[in-house]
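Run folding on both entries below.
>entry_1
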Amino acid sequence: MDRAATVGGRVHSIALGTTPVDAGASHVWSFYSRTRWWIQRLGLGAALVPAGGLGSLGIAATDLPGIVRAGLDVARLWRRLDFRSPQRAAPFDRASIRDYASRHLSAQLTSSAVVPSFEWNAFCSLSEMSQVLLLQGGRLFLRARPYRMRGGLQLFPEALARGLDLRLGSRFATRSLAFGPGGAVAKLADGSSILCAAVVVATGPGEAADLAEFAPSLDRFLRGVAHSTVVREWWNLPGRRAFRNEPLRLSFGVSSEGVAVARPAGDALFLSLALYGRAVREMGSEEVDSAMEQLRIGLLLGSTPGQPMTRARFRWDSAVTIFAPGHFRQLDQLVPSRPQGRVVLAGDYLVSPTVEGAVLSGERAAAEVMRLPILER
């Protein structure tokens, strides 16, 4: 069952005219080994294409001592920085990326390399993310190559779901889970109930806590996991025009920020805008419109009023799971991926805030379900 009308969750593609764009997750990185295995198995390998260069990191000679110190940390902790086993990094989950960068890296390197790599992808500040994410990124950097899926990344979850008994739409939303000797009972929004041998809960962690009763420590953890909020907009502008070739970052109000990126697409300009930050959730539609216009004006060096364009907007109130300082320690202490009675949790918050993290958590949840005694008889 899925509360939405389509499968995929935060992997969701929408149409910009005749061009599909990824509203949520957009990249498959070269180190996403399980994701790429599934993509090949589903016959989608040919649709995976390089996403292009990552651009210059703007490294100066004065940045080298900090880079060397960070590199030594990565080498020393190499085995514990495997993002597929996040609990192993718990001893080093003591500070934020911002704290680590302030001690080891120059302000120039932080703004030119660390901020684009993390804030512009996670849509939250460096102060909200554990330093473990930076160290894990350092471990993966040398072999990291980004890919996109021609036709939109949502082709992947749709292919995974093909042939399954799916129930889509809000009237099938699970309202609560109850447990008895015969199994788990899922009570649905339309008033019906389903008896299940076991249940995999692959919602956001806060929603999972609302569905069933867990141990108090696990309940606090689930309710404490936060997500970034982002409003994304895409403009396909016909006619070549001048534009800035690097991401432009602007601030709006006290705690909202925005990023705008443009790339040529034939004779058109493909403009992507993202507005994010703590205040975005509170912003009204007129304020969002104004902020988006400021982003567009700040990016384009020249614009001809009245020219036709295609435009699409999407809002995510749970865009990316925020692995805040302390998150890895809690994963190590609570082991929330283990079955809770006949309920097994799944979600990227249990592994890493990536498509690969979601895939790995799903595989592990399936393996745990198959080991439950009720399924062995």
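>entry_2
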Amino acid sequence: MRTLVIGGNGFIGTPLVRELIALGHDPAVLHRTAEAGMQAGAKQIRGDRNHLQDLEAEIRAFAPDLIVDMILSSGKQAQQLVRFAGAIDARVVAVSSMDVYRAWGVLLGSEQGELEPLPITEDSPLRSATRAYPPEVVTVMKTIFTWVDPEYDKVAVEEAVRSGGAENTIVRLPMVYGPDDPLHRMHGVLKRIADRRPAIILADDQAAWRGPRGYVENVAHAIALAATSERARGRTYHLCEEPCLSDLEWSRNIASQAGWAGKFVVMPREKTPKHLLMPVNALQHIIASSERIRSELNYRQPVSTGETIRRAIAWEQANPPAVPSFHQFDYDAEDLALASGY
């Protein structure tokens, strides 16, 4: 199978292309950046995903059976993609996000009303709000993920992909961690450990919150299954590690693997230093079931959870961010909170 991977040299795209090569498939990678670091065995097509028509001759020469788009951001992009895919008779696998669910909107405050029942499945209600995030958040996202469009909305992406072909597939991703993670999700815990902090504070609501996670190589494996399995035609899947850990459990796993001897302190939200508070409704958990992809595509995690954390820590310790993306550090405020006994 010839597969064109749009955005195939990024955080998740790179292990996906490696997986496709290992399966004996013939991938090409469409990207804008320099070719350094691309794996052998993948054809490279340089260009802008927003102007696929300018690349039509080169893509037609490659003759892909399948297009896997890792970086779809808006409905407009998705409409262009499915028109292009239809013209060259290629099936589409669109990489989406669990932020399409109404539960995610309740978490972020863009959806009003009752909490969404759990667990989340692929048939759970989607957001009614047209945008998951306010414009200022999208602007910050774009500094980290350069492919993010100002009109970012995965719900609109999915609507266009479904309408563009009955055999197209959608894969909704969890919070992805691991080597090359541009968000450095473990940095908040690991920096405090490296700085020899005696305690790490969590607000009580955030400590209890449960959300979906996935290790980057396991996520790439799941996308490869959706791309290469006949059963996946026309289907929608999401994936996540199970059981779904709370933030406190997740942080403790990281600390244990890092050999930290300190303690976690869970404080009432009103007593927690402000820089540690997350502006979300943490009563809305995002506990998702991965039963569909496990039963229909026989998905199993190639890398066990303990090993995923070990690998992620090793990479993070060797590659701390120059500027933390969303982690905040104010040790004076944390010391005052710890000394107060709350």
